[in-house]
């Protein structure tokens, strides 16, 4: 199939190529009737802009790359919605690639997106302890939901220590003492921060509780199984602070099958406050984050960087809040 060009549209309308180009790019020196006429004909003829040609001319394509763990995760789904709304407001579109928390997939994703000519990249890195893993990115980029210590990167993330602290302190204030936390194996900022918040609350309450802290490691799919194994062998648990709501839901299902009542026997707190949190039984107590803000702010900053603006600061941090419901 032969590609329709601006020259083809101009020939049919008996207009100059420059007039058609200006009309398609919404330049102010083209009258509205001509603009509508050009866009209508271009659409009818199946014209699409040659993005790579624009990139070679150093022009923005209106395309932002997004690299995340998994857009099926309800947390990321809401973050991406925020990104999409803000991007569209500025005339940009998103090109999304999942990494499944695999570093080699992240390397591929960054290379793929840059070869597609994206103007900038929004990335939730698989690792956030090695700043030079961002070296392959040659376009403006913003780190989303992660934090590199001592880096100069532009980052939008959450106060994870505060989130872990709020959850654990609430459990302590409720009289719980045998508090298990279930966290991923991954050494990433959210895991480190939420665990530190858990330890901070225990430390403030009692060094004895801190010494007896119970930190289980698991994937989200096996969180219930890992908890069941611990309960079956030790039986000492009256509360669970889960890495996120998906972990928490797995924990609740596991506790119920083991004959425990939630929250009467074991309280459970999740993290992220995904939409499902209010629909499960018991309704899930969760550390709430504004996912829309995270996505929206990241896009807003990236577009400013693409346009050459100097940002006033590099780190944009959101403070979470605890949404207390029935589970704990």
Please characterize this protein's 3D structure.
- The strands form 2 sheets. A 6-stranded parallel beta sheet has the order 2-1-3-4-5-11, with helices on both faces. Strands 7-6-8-9-10-12 form a 6-stranded mixed beta sheet, with helices on both faces.
- The mean pLDDT is 91.
- It is α/β, with parallel strands linked by helices and 328 residues long.
- Strand 8, helix 11 and strand 9 form a beta-alpha-beta unit.
- Helix 5 packs across helix 12, helix 7 runs parallel beside helix 8 and helix 10 crosses helix 11.
- The protein folds into 3 domains: 44 residues, 434 Repressor (Amino-terminal Domain) (Orthogonal Bundle); 126 residues, Response regulator (Rossmann fold); 129 residues, Rossmann fold.
- The protein has 12 helices and 12 strands.
- The termini are far apart.
- The radius of gyration is 25 Å and the shape is elongated.
């Amino acid at each position: 199939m032969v590609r329709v060009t601006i020259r083809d549209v101009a020939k049919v309308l008996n207009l100059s190529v420059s007039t058609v180009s200006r009309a398609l790019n919404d330049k102010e020196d083209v009258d509205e009737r001509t603009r509508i006429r050009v866009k209508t004909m271009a659409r009818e003829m199946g014209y699409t802009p040659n993005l790579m040609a624009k990139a070679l001319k150093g022009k923005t394509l209106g395309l932002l790359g997004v690299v995340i763990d998994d857009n099926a995760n309800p947390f990321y789904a809401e973050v991406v919605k925020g990104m999409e709304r803000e991007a569209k407001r500025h005339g940009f579109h998103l090109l999304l690639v999942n990494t499944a928390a695999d570093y080699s997939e992240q390397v591929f994703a960054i290379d793929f997106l840059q070869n597609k000519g994206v103007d900038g990249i929004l990335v939730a890195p698989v690792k956030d302890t090695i700043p030079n893993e961002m070296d392959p990115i040659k376009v403006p980029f913003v780190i989303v939901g992660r934090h590199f210590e001592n880096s100069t990167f532009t980052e939008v993330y959450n106060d994870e220590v505060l989130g872990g602290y709020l959850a654990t302190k609430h459990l302590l204030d409720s009289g719980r003492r045998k508090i298990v936390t279930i966290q991923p194996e991954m050494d990433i900022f959210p895991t480190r921060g939420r665990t530190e918040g858990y330890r901070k609350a225990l430390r403030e309450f009692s060094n004895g509780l801190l010494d007896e802290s119970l930190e289980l490691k698991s994937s989200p799919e096996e969180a219930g199984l890992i908890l069941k194994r611990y309960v079956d062998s030790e039986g000492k648990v009256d509360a669970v602070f889960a890495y996120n709501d998906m972990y928490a839901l797995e924990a609740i299902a596991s506790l119920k099958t083991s004959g425990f009542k939630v929250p009467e026997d074991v309280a459970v707190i999740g993290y992220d406050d995904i939409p499902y949190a209010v629909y499960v039984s018991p309704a899930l107590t969760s550390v709430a984050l504004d996912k829309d803000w995270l996505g929206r702010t990241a896009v807003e900053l990236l577009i400013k960087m693409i346009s050459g603006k100097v940002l006033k600061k590099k780190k944009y941090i959101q403070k979470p809040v605890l949404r207390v419901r029935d589970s704990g």
